[in-house]
Structure formats: C-alpha cells, structure tokens
C-alpha cells in the first residue's frame, strides 16, 4: 500500500473541493487600484501580526512577569540571550509599525469613503482593531517594568478611575487592587500574551470575512478593472513581507529599545510620558480638566466609531456629505499630528 493511499484512507478529504478552493483563491479578482500599495495598506498589519506573535512567543521563554524579576529578565534577554536583542527590538518596532500601518489604512478607507453602505460594520471592526492594537502595545510597554513604563502604567490606569460609573471597577480589575503591584503586572502579562491576541485574532478573521463577502471597494478616480490574486498580488505580498522583515531588523539593530532603570515606586520621575501614539490624548488632557477631557475624548471616539452611520445625517446630498467628511477628517489628522509633535518636543 502506498503512503498516499494510506493517508487518504485515514483522511478522506475531497481533493476536488480543495482544488476548486485553491483555484478560486489564487484567481480571485483584485481591483486595479490595489497595485498601489498605499491603497492596500490593510495587508501590512495582516503581515505584521503573525510576526509579532512569533517574536512575542520567543520573548515569553525568558520573560518573568514579577516586579522583582521583570526588569532583570528584560536585561537578560537584551544582553545575554543569543539574538535576544534582535528579537526584542523586532517585537518593539513591529508594534510601532503595526499601529502606523493601521492608522494609514484607516485614513485611506476614510478619505476614499470606503466605509459607506454596506461596509459600515467593517469600519467599526477596523476601529476596534486599532484600539486593541494600541492597548496591547501599552500593556507590552508596561511589562519592561522600568521607571518610565511603571509610572506610565500608573498614570494611565489612574485616568481610567475618572470614567463615570465603571471607572473605579475597571481600575481595580486591571490593577488587582488599589495600587500597581504584582497582581497588576500579572494581569497586564495575561492581557498581553493571551486575552488581547485572541480577541485581535478573532476580530481580524471577522474583518477579513466581511471584506471577502462584500469585496474590496473601488474608490473613484482610479483605473477600473481587476487582476488575479496570483501571481501579481501574491508576489507583492512576499516582497512587502521581506521588506518589512528587513526594515524592522535594521531598526532593531540600529535603534534598539533601551532597558532603563528598574521601577522605583517611591521615586516619581519629573517628566512622565506615554508612548507616542498616546501623545495627542496626553497633551490634550494636560490642557483641560481631566473629567471634561475624558468626556470630550470619549465622545470623539464614539463619533469616529459610528461615523458611517452618522455621516448620512449630515446632509441630503452625497457631495455635501463628502465635503464635510473630508474637512472633518483633515482637521482631525492635522490636530493629531500637531499635538503629537508638540508633545514630542516638550517636557
């Protein structure tokens, strides 16, 4: 009996159905505008996410989630483990590039109005994915348990206490008590390694499933038509994957993330800053009372999440709605950039 026959007897898979599936997959029509990578930025975080999972798993082999050992284990990974500095640097810069690529992808979707009917729900899922990626990056940043990350974690969770009604409950849930302790680090580790990756994976599958059901929207002003997924788009994905691996490796080697000094709960630094993707929010909350600032930010986030449903209420004519959307989008993007730059170059 041949090995092929033996396998087929135990796994009676319909090879014709598999062939049909492969045929549909590789010859799936891709809109012509996706030849421009800036209009296909959604593929970039899809490439980066599994790379983050792989490097994250490698880091868990040595990381110890306890206040006494967290910082030391990060130092050990960086300075003593073979290629540990590269794996940690790759994970660090991969997270930053993932956030940037999702921002760019959402900008493209917004300004080409690809969120409109019948794709409103996919915009909501995309926004949730952005929020979750920023959250998982924040929890990972906190795990280094150096002086800066410890106090950023303290200040960040303190802000949650100001959320009406559920704020104190969320604070206790995340910290495992009123203060940042061993329980806090353990819970952040659990969120970062298990809960958030699983939720992101699920939402990513749903996001892609909805995309495939409706197909990729074709924005106005670009060449019409389509081309098969294989070989043109497939080869482009391979090239972009190799480029991203090379770019992140270069950043990991030339600009490695620092270790910092161990966390000291009794010594508050003069200047506490979150990671850059929270700079705009951080600066805004320094300028306005905390309660009012959180309310405004909360309403703004809800407005952006449900924008596809709110936009039709702005005006009867589609042209007028487009002008309002473009203007609002431009103001939001410019505000985020300006606030981020101000916070970057000030204490």
Summarize this structure as a short list of keywords or feature phrases.
347 residues, mainly alpha, Cytochrome Bc1 Complex, Chain C, Helix Hairpins, 2 domains, two-stranded antiparallel ribbon, 14 helices, 68% helix
Please outline what is shown here:
Helix content is 68%, strand content 2%.
Describe this structure in words.
The protein is mostly helical and about 350 residues long. It has two domains: about 40-265, Up-down Bundle (Cytochrome Bc1 Complex, Chain C); about 275-345, Helix Hairpins, CATH 1.10.287. It has helices at about 5-10, 15-25, 45-60, 70-80, 85-110, 120-140, 145-160, 165-175, 180-215, 230-255, 280-285, 290-305, 305-310, 320-345, and strands at about 30, 225-230. The chain has a two-stranded antiparallel sheet with strand order 1-2. It is globular, with a radius of gyration of 23 Å. The model has no long low-confidence stretch (mean pLDDT about 90).
């Amino acid at each position: 009996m041949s090995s092929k026959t033996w396998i087929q007897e135990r796994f009676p898979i319909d090879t014709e159905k598999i062939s049909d599936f492969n045929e549909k997959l590789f010859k799936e029509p891709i809109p012509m505008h996706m030849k421009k990578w800036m209009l296909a930025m959604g593929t970039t975080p899809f490439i980066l996410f599994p790379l983050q999972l792989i490097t994250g798993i490698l880091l868990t082999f040595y990381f110890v989630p306890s206040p006494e050992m967290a910082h030391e284990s990060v130092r050990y990974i960086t300075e003593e483990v073979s290629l540990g500095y590269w794996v940690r640097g790759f994970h660090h810069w991969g997270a930053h590039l993932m956030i940037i690529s999702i921002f760019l992808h959402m900008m493209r979707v917004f300004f080409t109005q690809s969120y409109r009917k019948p794709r409103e729900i996919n915009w909501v899922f995309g926004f949730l994915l952005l929020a979750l990626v920023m959250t998982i990056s924040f929890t990972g940043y906190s795990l280094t348990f150096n002086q800066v990350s410890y106090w950023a974690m303290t200040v960040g969770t303190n802000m949650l206490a100001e959320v009406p009604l559920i704020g104190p409950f969320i604070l206790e849930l995340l910290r495992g008590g009123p203060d940042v302790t061993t329980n806090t680090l353990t819970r952040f580790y659990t969120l970062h390694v298990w809960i958030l990756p699983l939720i992101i994976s699920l939402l990513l599958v749903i996001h892609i499933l909805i995309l495939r059901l409706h197909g990729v929207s074709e924005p106005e002003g670009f060449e019409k038509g389509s081309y098969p997924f294989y070989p043109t788009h497939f080869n482009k994905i391979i090239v972009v994957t190799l480029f991203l691996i090379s770019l992140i490796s270069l950043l990991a080697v030339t600009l490695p993330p620092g270790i910092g000094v161990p966390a000291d709960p009794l010594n508050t630094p003069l200047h506490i800053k979150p990671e850059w993707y929270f700079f705009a929010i951080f600066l805004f909350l320094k300028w306005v009372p905390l309660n009012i600032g959180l309310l405004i930010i909360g309403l703004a986030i809800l407005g952006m999440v449900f924008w596809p449903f709110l936009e039709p209420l702005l005006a009867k004519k589609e042209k007028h709605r487009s002008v309002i959307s473009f203007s609002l989008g431009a103001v939001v993007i410019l505000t985020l950039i300006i606030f981020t730059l101000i916070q970057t170059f000030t204490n």
